[in-house]
Design goal:
Layout (H helix, E strand, L loop, with lengths): L1 H4 L7 E3 L3 H4 L15 E5 L1 H12 L5 E3 L1 H15 L2 H4 L9 E5 L14 E5 L6 H10 L1 H13 L10 E4 L1
Parallel strand pairs: 3-5
Antiparallel strand pairs: 1-2, 2-4, 5-6
Helix pairs in contact: 6-7
């Protein structure tokens, strides 16, 4: 309610989290890692709000890596549409289905500008996702401080805001 009072608009997505989110990366080449598919839902109301936010030049803040993965899945679908190829701005479409998106450094975010997330375990796809957004060096500095200050890691732990 305090966020709404400050003019921050809220929208919701669904990602049915499975093994793909939590399974550690165990391959030598990151490109060889296969994510398990997880089911997501991005409603028409959420798509409209994101498009309005982007049109107004404001930032989209994802709360959690699962939200970020859902939004970026929708961005990927939007990039495949003819209007985007012709230079039109990215328009998020409502969608649902299975996603196996794996975001790691080098990925160009299409929707997410800011991310609120937990501290994640080493070799996790989640750590790679935040490294793609913040840069590996910045993430490693934050993690050094987190270990030194004894922050709580993983789900239900301490959190950080990446922008």
């Amino acid at each position: 309610e305090r966020l709404k009072a400050k003019g921050i608009r809220l929208a919701f997505v669904t990602l049915h989290v499975g093994l793909g989110t939590f399974r550690p990366v165990s391959v030598d080449k990151i490109e060889d890692h296969q994510m398990h598919a997880e089911y997501y839902i991005l409603s028409e109301e959420t798509a409209s709000l994101i498009n309005e936010t982007k049109d107004a030049g404001k930032r989209v803040i994802a709360v959690g890596t699962t939200s970020a993965r859902t939004l970026e899945t929708a961005a990927g679908l939007s990039r495949e549409q003819p209007n985007y190829a012709s230079g039109e701005p990215l328009r998020i479409q409502p969608s649902q289905g299975w996603t196996s998106i794996f975001i790691y450094p080098g990925y160009k975010f299409g929707v997410v500008d800011v991310l609120l997330t937990n501290f994640h375990l080493p070799k996790s796809t989640l750590l790679m996702l935040i490294s793609a957004l913040a840069g590996k060096e910045n993430v490693m500095k934050a993690y050094e401080e987190a270990v030194q200050e004894q922050y709580r890691f993983f789900s239900f732990g301490d959190a950080m805001l990446i922008y």
